[in-house]
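User: I'm putting together notes for a lab meeting next week and I want to include a structural view of one of the chains we've been expressing. I don't have a solved structure, so I'd like a prediction I can at least talk through. The sequence is below, exactly as it appears in our construct file.
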Amino acid sequence: MSEDSEARMANENMQIAAIDLGSNSFHMAIAHIEHGEIRIQERFGEKVQLAAGLDKQGNLDDESISRAIDCLKRFEQRLRTIDRDYIQIVGTNALRVARNRKQLTSAVEDLLGVPIEVISGREEARLIYLGVAHTLADDEGQRLVIDIGGGSTEFVIGKRFESLERESLHMGCVSYREAFFKEGVITKQNFAQAVARAERELLPIKKQYKKQGWQSCVGSSGSIKAVFQALGKDENRALTVDLKELKQLREKLIQLGHIDQLEQLNIKKERWSIFPAGLSIMLGAFRALDIESMEFSDGALREGLLYDIVGRISHEDVRDRSISALQQRYGVDLEHSAYVACLSKQLYAQVCDDWKIHYPKWKNLLTWAAQVFEVGLAIAHSQYQKHGAYLIQNSDLSGFSNVVQSQLALLVRSHRRKIPTADLPDLAKHDFVSLQYLMVLLRLSILLAADREYSPVPITLRAGKMSLEVSFEEGWIESHPLTAANLEHERYYLKKIGFALNF
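Assistant: Thanks for the context. Below is the predicted structure for the 503-residue chain, given as structure tokens.
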């Protein structure tokens, strides 16, 4: 974030907010930072059941979109006093699969003034683990964390605050309700079918997870919390549930026969319709992974988001580690990429105000692109910009939302030769012009570093709306004829997208 972020962290009144647009419920957590630690002040949650609004074509219906917007209008009132730089909103499984998600995300971004990051299942798993890990004792053992959501269930093995294995499987309490308990009837047969489906879903990860191993198992979020409550367990105490208790609870539900009878259990009425589905997934996980017992944690995705925000503020951004790992994996020339990144920051500083890109997200994106633009060379030099874009788009980059990862891939794809204008409208949307400006700065930085001299470049930029005037100290360009020739070529490429480069 901005350079004054650390100073703001020292402010005891600084607030941060995290919103989880889940497939079943929307959650918001408000916290303040005290001596570098997060202190949660308020939690909000509403049952929206976004996943229930998905039709056979994978589109969200108007009713589910209206429910979502109405909920977020209420959240917005509480967010009015919080700096937009310190609010993070993520969408999970329902938004990942919804073909018309832009209809909702665009409306929400206009309402809240904050971009929605639709995150991958594995990124969701990482954040869930981060939230859970901060609520538990800091021991040395490995733990398995399971989070049953509305549209997906995350399975994470980690140690302390680092996740080692992360998977998100397409099974959730809303989707399982629709598949097995749609009419509200609870029978031995539909329970058996649901549990068997959950066990089958776990087959691809079962061997690796059991090989990795864990010393304790922790459940998080509403579906697992409801199971603890139904069993008379106080989730705020160090109590556990085991397979025998889950089977007993299943038998009780079968005896009751219908979700309307679940008032006899100590769970909220709004959870009745999805409770058998959540229990089925939990039973399937216990059986497939041979889980002996599970404890409960109040930490979840929204808490993980809060800790992720603090990490970004305090320059412990997991995305920087992902970029570094990408460089190492594909043998990037670190000296060259560091020089290009340094040049890009120099150029960015001169034009960011005029081009209205003086925001941390754009500065970070430009820096990351400068650090990894050569990853495609690991495949071949010919069209390496395309190879690099493919590698970035399809890599597991912790901390990156799908949108930011696509934007990074686009910058790498566009750093040389012809600019793929056909990809711009689809990927950029509201950020169309800003991404074009970043492309220009990245291409110019790479061009100026082409001779690999790594000496200071005495350059001055003057920015127009779709133009850039470049000037150098007297005599510099004459002593760098290769750079002059490359600038002429660059003028031609930029003209193709309606951008004027003058020097």
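A couple of points you could mention at the meeting. Residues 336 and 453 are 10 Å apart (CA to CA). The chain has 19 helices and 14 strands.

User: Perfect, that's what I needed.
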